[in-house]
Design brief:
Distance between the termini of chain A: 41 Å
Order of helices and strands of chain A: EEEEEEEEEEEE
Number of strands of chain A: 12
Shape of chain B: globular
Number of helices of chain A: 0
Structural class of chain B: mainly beta
Order of helices and strands of chain B: EEEEEEEEEEE
Oligomer: heterodimer
Shape of chain A: globular
Number of strands of chain B: 11
Largest sheet of chain B: 7 strands, mixed
Largest interface: A-B, 18 and 20 residues
Number of helices of chain B: 0
Radius of gyration of chain A: 13 Å
């Protein structure tokens, strides 16, 4: 069965520093992978997704994630974070009709 | 499109009362999901529908919870009777068959006193 592990529950970082949020998944079949972001008091929004093709996917606000099949990982990175990136980030893997979500990583960006 | 619509956005009720949460999916979407989010348990899938038919309700915590989807544009999640441990944010999400991306509503914050 599919599962998702987000190793870090919280990641504190200073503004303009790089950040990596880790995500590992387990799956016996081909997968689709997602990162969602949840800003305070809002629903989840899709940040980026990997379905096929290039293993490096990017979002419009500077985040990127790389699908690594051998390491079963889909880590999220940003070279320089902003205060506005403070949010909860969820990694998810598709399973049949559903999405299996990780437990989330709270990114806190300090000035 | 207005996106997924949920109502109410906030609900405060007393233990023992019936609570009904409402969701309008994105027009044309044929899957609808209900989730619950708490600090302790994170994001949990409660139930999901395909073409208005419940497919998997294994995440529904107990018989006090029920969900319906009478038509393609409306779903309800009902808790009767409500208990303080039901306090959480409840999200509805929808998607189209073949598209794994789910679109989430803004959520309903439920507080049971």
């Amino acid at each position: 069965a599919q599962s998702v592990t987000q190793l870090d529950s919280q990641v504190p970082v200073f503004e303009e520093a790089p950040v990596e949020l880790r995500c590992n998944y387990s799956s016996s079949v081909s997968v689709y992978l997602f990162w969602y972001v949840q800003y305070p008091n809002q629903g989840l929004q899709l940040l980026l997704k990997y379905l096929s093709g290039s293993t490096l996917v990017e979002s419009i606000n500077g985040f990127e994630a790389e699908f690594n099949k051998s390491q079963t990982s889909f880590h999220l990175r940003k070279p320089s974070v902003h205060i506005s990136d403070t949010a909860e980030y969820f990694c998810a893997v598709s399973y049949a009709d559903k999405l299996i979500f990780g437990t989330g990583t709270r990114l806190q960006v300090f000035p | 499109d207005a996106g997924v619509i949920q109502s109410p956005r906030h609900e405060v009720t007393e233990m023992g009362q019936e609570v009904t949460l409402r969701c309008k999916p994105i027009s044309g979407h044929d899957y609808l999901f209900w989730y619950r989010q708490t600090m302790m348990r994170g994001l949990e899938l409660l139930i999901y529908f395909n073409n208005n038919v419940p497919i998997d309700d294994s995440g529904m915590p107990e018989d006090r919870f029920s969900a319906k989807m009478p038509n393609a544009s409306f779903s309800t999640l009902k808790i009767q009777p409500s208990e303080p441990r039901d306090s959480a944010v409840y999200f509805c999400a929808s998607t189209l068959v073949g598209h794994n991306e789910q679109f989430f509503g803004p959520g309903t914050r439920l507080t049971v006193l």
